[in-house]
Amino acid sequence: MEQYDILKERGASRVSPMTVPMLMPNGPAAVIGLEIGAMAGVHTPVSACASGAEAIGYGAEMIRTGRADVVICGGTEGCIHPLTIAAFAAMRALSTLHENAAGASRPFDRDRDGFVMAEGAAIIVLESEEFAKARGAKIYATYAGQGIAADAHHIAQPEPEGRGVILAMNRALADAQLSTKDIFHVNAHATSTPAGDVAEAKAIRKVLGSDSDHAPVTAVKGVAGHLLGGAGSLAALASILAIKNRIVPPVGNLVNLADGVDVDVVMSKPRELPAGDIAALSNSFGFGGHDIVLAFRNYS
């Protein structure tokens, strides 16, 4: 977008020859692939704010099917620009709590009014257990499975009852061969929007039922903002660290729990997780109705 400003102000001859590589959605993956000589494949899922999570699921399938021993996967996005901010503001998706900018991103809070855009990346290394052990790797968790579904409802609004989310969560449990009793943590997509957070909470309660009472819920966007294409992999990383360290961080800026949120949301202080075998679900959703849920287990 900076290059477009240069085009307008200084003419076509001043546009960088690297503009096309910078514009390509597959640019970041391509650069990493070139640096490390990744010949098993370089792939770029494009599913809006669920892209980072879908990349992890795709990478795991490459390992499961024997196409790769190691996969570097995750998501990133450089999205902060006057045009993108104006565009999301026009959709009424962004928070307008400008007088309290540091506390504007407040998932599940009664007074939430939209998300806060952020930039960043979260990358994880997936590898087969055999390969990891052979190289003496520090293993943080076990990837267990994924669930993919779609809302089929609206380009930008969540389906109110969370039917696509429910389907994705159930598919993740089935793929991971887990029951609801195995789930001791959920990292919610929760972007701090009025509609999305409640719909997701309904879906979590619907899927886990009474077992949601022992599955504390958190959401990283309260402290990190919304990384868009990088959001899903950041949530996955937070889920992995939660079950590795046996502690769930509280939702940032959450003061008053919103009506309709009937799940155990972690507020104010961290929550310890029990010893033994535990699993976590990481939810990621994107404009267009994309629903991606990843499941992780503690490594033992």
UniProtKB/TrEMBL annotation:
GO terms for biological process: fatty acid biosynthetic process. The keyword Transmembrane does not apply. This is Unannotated protein. The keyword Transferase applies. Residues 1-298 form the Ketosynthase family 3 (KS3) domain. SUPFAM superfamilies: Thiolase-like. SMART domains: PKS_KS. GO terms for molecular function: 3-oxoacyl-[acyl-carrier-protein] synthase activity. Pfam families: ketoacyl-synt (PF00109), Ketoacyl-synt_C (PF02801). Belongs to the thiolase-like superfamily. Beta-ketoacyl-ACP synthases family. GO terms for cellular component: cytosol. Keywords: Transferase. It comes from freshwater metagenome.
